[in-house]
Amino acid sequence: MRILLLLLSLVISYIVGSIPTAYIFGKLLKGIDIREHGSGNVGATNVFRVIGKVPGIIVLIIDFLKGFLAVTIIPLVLELSYPGVFRGAIYFITLIGGAVIAGHIWTIFLKFKGGKGVATTAGVMIALAPLVFLSCLIIWAVIFFIWRYVSLASIVASCALPIMALVFGRSLSFIIFCCILCAVGVYGHRSNIKRLIQGTEKKLI
CB neighbours of 198 closer than 8 A, spacing ≥ 6? Predict the structure, then answer.
């Protein structure tokens, strides 16, 4: 029963992450498939560019909340309903975070092609490791305000994740988790990296 509950929490987290917020907003507000416009990415930055600032910010907040709520509400509900379900398996909450991020990047609703997971990862990190999140947010902000590239700021912040986890003395398993997020984040931005090298990447502002 306990194993089934833990697996169920992963499935729910993945489905929550899979909700394609940017795609939904594109359809509702403009009647378009966001994947066919702008960068083609199903994320807040593309919504910001294609649909507008306010929708972009709303999508950013919702995608952030998907990560935050998955690693806070789902474990809380399970623990209240079945006390002790996470006993000896605290690391499982980190897996829940991984599941919701995976859902956003590989959404089941769009043939497993979603966004890059930056906002959802941020939501997970602020819940699991606030100091790591804040340090990476500062790094993101500095890079963005200097060069105005969301992609560059996100890539650098992703690379900083495992370093900051190490600096703040997080467990080895969490550092490995951050390394995986870093690798996935950089890989997801491979087209942006190519454009940055070529000098064709668009600045947000």
Answer: none
pLDDT in tens, 91-148: 889 999 999 999 999 999 999 999 999 999 999 999 999 999 999 999 999 999 999 9
Of 57, 21, 62, 68, nearest in space to 42 by CA: 21
Token pair recorded at residue 13: 């987290």
29: nearest Cα among 54, 7, 11, 9? 54
pTM assigned to the model: 0.95
Q: How far are the Cα atoms of 96, 120, 125 from residue 59, in angstroms, in the given order?
A: 21, 11, 18
For residues 127 and 68, is the Cβ–Cβ distance under 8 A?
yes
Q: What are phi and psi of 204, to 5 degrees?
A: -70, -40
Q: What's the alpha-carbon Rg for the chain, to the nearest Å? A: 17
